[in-house]
């Protein structure tokens, strides 16, 4: 569903992503794990088109999207939940979700979104900024999902979220994958979270993928050793 080949990304003269390759199938969750500063956010920003890749290719469902602007990548089926959630604090929950509909013809938020996130239905008239961190994360995921993506990209969704809510987010992502049969690519540092959702785990270090394993049988000690400072 998503095929990334030899992707390189630079800030000015300084290359930060040094030729990344991965493939994610439909209905598969891939976790990209790495410590702070290893390149996760840079990778995700370049996948969605906020940062230009300097070379390589990004193929979504058979179509090269690496040279398209962000909004066309979204229209083609990529959706992005940024690190820090970046919801609009002064818009209501409903307005935040509706902002994800821009690439679609409809302006109606499907009911299934509120079936996945019942708390957002209750809070639909509240300002986004008044929600808890976990609720804001649900809102950011809901906003990404209304564009009917084929691939959902999430950058460190558990950051700053309390452990009990992290479990809920894992449950929701598994439910989304089961219901929508989409591919999910998530960057993370929390191993218990990725073990609960991922079919495959890849470790990113200094802008390269240096290790990859099947999720269920993953050697957790080994992955944890890469994540230790
Ligand atoms: N705007 C920028 N200009 C120059 N260098 C940058 C910029 N943003 C990030 N970098 C550098 O790129 C490298 C990768 O950073 P990136 O934010 O992608 O890592 P990360 O794995 O997402 O870490 P974190 O979890 O802290 O966000 C780091 O060395 C960082 O200093």
UniProtKB/TrEMBL annotation:
<dbReference type="GO" id="GO:0015658">
    <property type="term" value="F:branched-chain amino acid transmembrane transporter activity"/>
</dbReference>
<dbReference type="InterPro" id="IPR027417">
    <property type="entry name" value="P-loop_NTPase"/>
</dbReference>
<keyword id="KW-0813">Transport</keyword>
<comment type="similarity">
    <text>Belongs to the ABC transporter superfamily.</text>
</comment>
<dbReference type="InterPro" id="IPR052156">
    <property type="entry name" value="BCAA_Transport_ATP-bd_LivF"/>
</dbReference>
<dbReference type="GO" id="GO:0015807">
    <property type="term" value="P:L-amino acid transport"/>
</dbReference>
<dbReference type="GO" id="GO:0005524">
    <property type="term" value="F:ATP binding"/>
</dbReference>
<protein>
    <submittedName>
        <fullName>Urea ABC transporter ATP-binding subunit UrtE</fullName>
    </submittedName>
</protein>
<dbReference type="Pfam" id="PF00005">
    <property type="entry name" value="ABC_tran"/>
</dbReference>
<feature type="domain" description="ABC transporter">
    <location>
        <begin position="2"/>
        <end position="229"/>
    </location>
</feature>
<dbReference type="InterPro" id="IPR003593">
    <property type="entry name" value="AAA+_ATPase"/>
</dbReference>
<keyword id="KW-0029">Amino-acid transport</keyword>
<dbReference type="InterPro" id="IPR003439">
    <property type="entry name" value="ABC_transporter-like_ATP-bd"/>
</dbReference>
<keyword id="KW-0067">ATP-binding</keyword>
<keyword id="KW-0547">Nucleotide-binding</keyword>
<dbReference type="InterPro" id="IPR017780">
    <property type="entry name" value="ABC_transptr_urea_ATP-bd_UrtE"/>
</dbReference>
<dbReference type="GO" id="GO:0016887">
    <property type="term" value="F:ATP hydrolysis activity"/>
</dbReference>
